[in-house]
Amino acid sequence: MRVFIVYCHPSEDSFTRNLCDAFMKGITDSGNEYILSDLYAMDFDAVMSEKEYLRDANYRNTPDIAADILKEHEKINSSDAIVFIYPVFWTEAPARLVGWFDRVWTYGFAYGEKKMKMLDKAMILCSAGNPLERLERLGLLASMKKVMLGDRLFGRARSMEFVVFDSTSRENRLRSEKWETNLKKAYEKGKNFFTECKTEFSVDDRIFTAIENSESGEVSDQTVFCYHQKDDVIWADYSGGSIVKGMLIGKIDAEHNLHFSYQHINSAGELKMGTCDSEPEIKNGKLRFYERWKWTDGQEGTSVIEEF
Ligand SMILES: Cc1cc2nc3c(=O)[nH]c(=O)nc-3n(C[C@H](O)[C@H](O)[C@H](O)COP(=O)(O)O)c2cc1C
Hints:
By secondary structure, this protein is an alpha/beta fold. It folds into two domains: 2-199, Rossmann fold (3-Layer(aba) Sandwich); 207-307, Beta Barrel (Lipocalin). Helices cover 29% and strands 35% of the residues. The chain is built from nine helices and 13 strands. The chain has helices at residues 15-29, 50-57, 67-77, 95-104, 132-137, 140-152, 173-177, 179-191, 193-199; strands spanning 2-7, 33-38, 81-87, 119-127, 157-165, 207-213, 224-230, 233-240, 243-252, 258-266, 271-283, 286-295, 300-307. A hairpin with a 2-residue loop joins strand 8 (233-240) and strand 9. Helix 1 (15-29) packs parallel to helix 8. The longest helix is centred in the N-terminal third of the chain and has 15 residues, at 15-29. The radius of gyration is 21 Å and the shape is globular. The model has no long low-confidence stretch (mean pLDDT 94). Bound molecules: flavin mononucleotide (FMN). Flavin mononucleotide (FMN) binds next to helix 1.
C-alpha cells in the first residue's frame, strides 16, 4: 500500500522535520511505501494565477492544467492514502500548503466531476505551539479540524484522523521533554497506518442526512446532522426541512452504537424531545446509522441517516 505525504515546513531545523522523518520510517518499517511532496524542497508555487482562478471559478473542466499540478494529481491517484505534515501557523497550515490546496484541488479533479479517487484514509499530523487544552478551550482546534477535515478532505477519504503534537514551541520546556515520546508516537502512526485504517471509527466532524423515516418522524433528506465525538461522548446539532434547530447528546458504546437524547424546535414552533438508539453500518464506503427513536409522548419509529 502507498501513502502520499504532503510535507510543509520552511526549515530543516524543526520538530516537524523530525516528526515527518519518524512517520516515514514507520511507513517503510511496516512494509508499505510512501511518496513525498516536500513543498519547500520542491519550491512549490503556491500562488494561484489569474488563468487558474478563472478556470476554477467558472467551473471550466478544460485540460490546461499546469504540469506541476498534474504531477500532484498523479501522486494522489496512484496512492491509497494521503497524509499532511505541517506546523500550525495562525491556526492554519503554512501559506505554501494552503496554496497547494488552492492550486491542486482543481475543478474536475477535486470537485465537480471529480477524477480524484476516493482515498482509504487521510491523516493530518501537525505540530502546535499551544497546549491542546488551550486550542480546544478557545475553539481553535475545532476550527483547524473543520477546515481540513470538514472542507478540504471532506468526501475525499473514507476515514480521517487529525493528530496534534502540542506544546512544541521553542520556549516551552515540554518541547524537549516530550521530544522522544512524540517521535515514537509519529513512528507508530506510520507503522500502524494501514492496519488502524481498518479499525478506526469516529463520528467526529461527520455530516449526515436522513434517507428514511417513519411517518411520525420529523427529520427528512433536508435535515443535516453535524456530529462530534470526544472519547465515548457524542453530540450533534441538526437543522433543515421541518427542523428549525435541534441538538442531541449521548454516548457511543464499544460496538459503535449510539445512545442519545434529542430535542428540537420544529417549523410549527413546537419543542419536541425523545431518545434514540442507533446502529452503524458502512454501505458503499459511507457510514449509515439505523435509528430506533421514541418521543417523550411514547410514539416510536425508525429512521436511517447516511453520511453525505
Ligand atoms: C508564524 C508562526 C505562527 C504560529 N502560529 C501558531 C498558532 O496559531 N497556534 C499554535 O499553536 N502554534 C503556532 N505557532 C507555533 C508553531 O506551530 C510551533 O512553533 C511549531 O509547531 C514548533 O515546531 P517546529 O520546530 O517544527 O517549528 C506558530 C509559529 C510560527 C512561526
